[in-house]
Specification:
This protein is an all-alpha fold and 135 residues long. Helices cover 86% and strands 0% of the residues. It has two helices and no strands. The longest helix has 98 residues.
Length: 135
C-alpha cells in the first residue's frame, strides 16, 4: 500500500510515476510476479517520498541558516551605527564643555580687567568719603 505525504502535488506526481513504472513492468502473461512488482514499486515510491522530504528539510535548514546570518549581519550593522552615534554625541559634549570653559575664562578675564581699571577710582572715592566729615 502506498503512503501519501503531506504535499498533495508531490503525491500525485509520485503516484503517476509509480503507475507508469508498474504498467511498464507488468506483463499480463506473468500474473504471479505482479504482487512482487507492486511491492517493489511501492518501495521505490517510498524512497522517492523520503528523498523529497529529506530535500525539503535540507532546503528549510539552509534557508534558516541564511536567515540567521542575515539577522546577525543586520544586528552587527545596527550596533556599529549605535556605537558611532554614541561616540559622536559624547565627542560633541566634550567639545561643548571645552567651549564653555573657554568662554567662562574669557568673561572672568574681562571682569578682572574692568575691576582693575575702576578700582583706583573706587578706592579714591571711599577715602574721600571717609576723610570728609560733614557737620
Amino acid at each position: 500500500m502506498l503512503q501519501y505525504c503531506i504535499n498533495p502535488c508531490n503525491c500525485v506526481l509520485i503516484h503517476r510515476l509509480v503507475c507508469v513504472k508498474i504498467e511498464k513492468r507488468m506483463d499480463p502473461s506473468r500474473g504471479h510476479g505482479s504482487i512482487q512488482m507492486l511491492l517493489t514499486a511501492e518501495n521505490e515510491a517510498q524512497q522517492i517520498v523520503t528523498a523529497a522530504k529529506n530535500l525539503k528539510m535540507s532546503r528549510l535548514k539552509q534557508a534558516k541558516e541564511e536567515a540567521e546570518r542575515e539577522v546577525m549581519n543586520y544586528r552587527s550593522q545596527m550596533e556599529a551605527e549605535y556605537q558611532n552615534s554614541i561616540t559622536e554625541s559624547s565627542g560633541s559634549s566634550d567639545s561643548t564643555v571645552k567651549r564653555l570653559e573657554s568662554e567662562t575664562e574669557t568673561k572672568i578675564q574681562s571682569l578682572k580687567e574692568r575691576a582693575s581699571r575702576v578700582s583706583p577710582g573706587v578706592v579714591k572715592m571711599l577715602i574721600n568719603h571717609i576723610t570728609n566729615v560733614r557737620a
